[in-house]
Amino acid sequence: MAHEPLHPRSPDTVHGEHQAAGEVHGHPTWATYKWVALILTVITIVEVWVYYIPAFVASRLFVPSLLIMSGVKFLIVVLFYMHLKYDHRLFRALFTGPLLVAMLTIIGLMFLFAKLVIRAG
Amino acid sequence: MATTAVPHAGHPPTSTGLDSRKIAIWAFIGSECMLFASLISTYLIYKGRSRVGPFPHEWWCRTTNVASLDGPIRNCPAGELLKPILDIPVTSQSTFVLLMSSLSMVLALAAVETKDRPLPANAGLPDRLLASSKLWLFATALLGAAFLCYQAYEFTSFVHEGLTIRTNLFGSSFFTLTGFHGAHVTAGVLWLVTLLAIDMRRGLGPRDALLVDISALYWHFVDVVWIAIFTLIYLIR
């Protein structure tokens, strides 16, 4: 079965149109999409698995590890499925700018309402 | 008569050289990030401040109004003890369904982009399936609809267990956040069904790739929002 080059890199109608839309390089191949789906599934399974380990839930590692796993999943989807890795930098700026504002808003509100605290000393 | 050069079909040249529709969808997605950030932060601020149950991760005795993270509460009259309301196994399944819909969406886009290329003479069934944009658009819409069914089941079971949008702060913020996300998924499914109808009627080809790409960006955004919701609301206690 040879279905590797779903998106050949050679210039053609599709590629030309997408370049005009701001795509810098071609899209990933089917093999990449398959691996991305597999990695997302594995991370989700690990997330749910650790939820059922009481000792791990009680530890300080629980929340940071879940946040890291979620962040990795978020990044993988945005970079590969949303093609941000391959797209024009203006699109990256249009997404990451508001995303940073959004994340800073959440963190700021968490501090404001004492859900997050920094203990000195 | 001289004519102005057009970079690609259906769209006039722009000062940035980029398609305005694609800039618009990214700007829209950026604004949506802030909308969901406000809903998620509202949930997180209200987390743990409900005066009465049911609670997301705690057992709750209705008559004594005692909650516990450590398991069933002793001395609670029969029928008055409620388990944690979030059903992680069911939500894990719906999360998997949404993740797989993102895979089928990228395959739909790939099929549309490469539709004008003839398949090799020795192409097998998997190659023919991969090249079918109708199949992948249908699969994505179906998986999106399945996710909505999971959400309808979850909402219904919550209401049966006594949690509505008016019950407590958890109910208000939870139903608002997940309800908004569900509304976005519904809009996405309708968008996909529209694309599928166009594909059935006249066929989608490389010239329509950008339209499918824009809908795909929206769909993947709905997926990444759920990735955040699943961790922050369902898994973190």
Structural class of chain B: mainly alpha
Estimate the global geometry of chain A from the Cα principal axes. Answer: flat
CATH superfamily of the largest domain in chain B: Cytochrome c oxidase, subunit III, four-helix bundle
Largest sheet of chain B: 3 strands, antiparallel
How is the largest sheet of chain B built, in terms of strand order? 2-1-3
Rg of chain A is: 20 Å
Number of spatially distinct domains of chain B: 2
Instruction: Assign the CATH topology of the largest domain in chain B.
Output: Four Helix Bundle (Hemerythrin (Met), subunit A)
The CATH architecture name of the largest domain in chain B reads Up-down Bundle
Write the element-wise H/E pattern of chain A from the N-terminal end onward: HHHHH
> What is the percent of helical residues of chain A?
55-70%
Give the percentage of residues in beta strands of chain A.
under 5%
**β content of chain B, as a range?**
under 5%
Which sheet architecture does the biggest sheet of chain A show? none
Spans of chain B of at least 5 consecutive residues whose pLDDT stays below 50 are 1-7
List low-confidence stretches of chain A: 1-16
Number of strands of chain A: 0
Number of strands of chain B: 3
**Whole-number average pLDDT of chain B?**
89
Alpha-carbon Rg of chain B, integer: 23 Å
Model description:
The complex is a heterodimer of chains A (121) and B (237). Chain A has 2 domains: 23-87; 88-121. Chain A contains 5 helices and no strands. Chain A has helices spanning 13-20, 30-51, 54-58, 62-81, 89-112. In chain A, helix 2 packs antiparallel against helix 4. Mean pLDDT of chain A is 81; it is low at 1-16. With 237 residues, chain B is mainly alpha-helical. Chain B has 2 domains: 20-49 and 86-116 and 125-235, Up-down Bundle (Four Helix Bundle (Hemerythrin (Met), subunit A)); 50-84, no CATH class. Chain B is 62% helix and 3% strand. In chain B, helix 2 (88-113) packs antiparallel against helix 4, helix 2 (88-113) runs antiparallel to helix 6 and helix 4 (133-160) runs antiparallel to helix 5. The N and C termini of chain B lie far apart (70 Å). The model of chain B is unreliable at 1-7 (pLDDT under 50). Chains A and B meet through helix 1, helix 2, helix 4 and helix 5 of A and helix 1, helix 2, helix 3 and helix 6 of B.
